[in-house]
Amino acid sequence: MADTTVLAQFQTADGEKTGPPLSLPANVTAEQLTVLINKFLETSEPRPYSFYIDEHEVVRSIQTDIIDAAGKSTEDTLVIVYQPQAFFKVRAVTRCS
Q: Which residues contact 6 (CB under 8 A, 6 or more apart)?
């Protein structure tokens, strides 16, 4: 199953498509999808994203979470809805008053 691929289309929660449809390996992880969407969006600083296919979150991989668990076919075009996650920065304390 390592060479199984799926056709996928990224889109926002509002339905706006991002980039062209892609042929992705079915074992692509959420971390790899995050790198890919940051490249598409050309962000200056990478942001974390969560990904959903038919309201099922991709936590481990498309193969594990969507094809095996949710019963989706690899022949279907999968619409991957992405949403930005909360992004926090920690700054060092320089002075206490």
A: 23, 24, 25, 26, 62, 67, 74, 76, 78
Helix or strand (DSSP H, E) at 50: strand 49-53
pTM: 0.80
End-to-end Cα spacing for the chain: 60
| pLDDT for the residue numbered 1 | 46
- The three-class DSSP label of residue 14 is coil
Helices assigned H by DSSP within the chain: 30-41, 62, 69-70
Alpha helix stretches (DSSP H) within 44-86: 62, 69-70
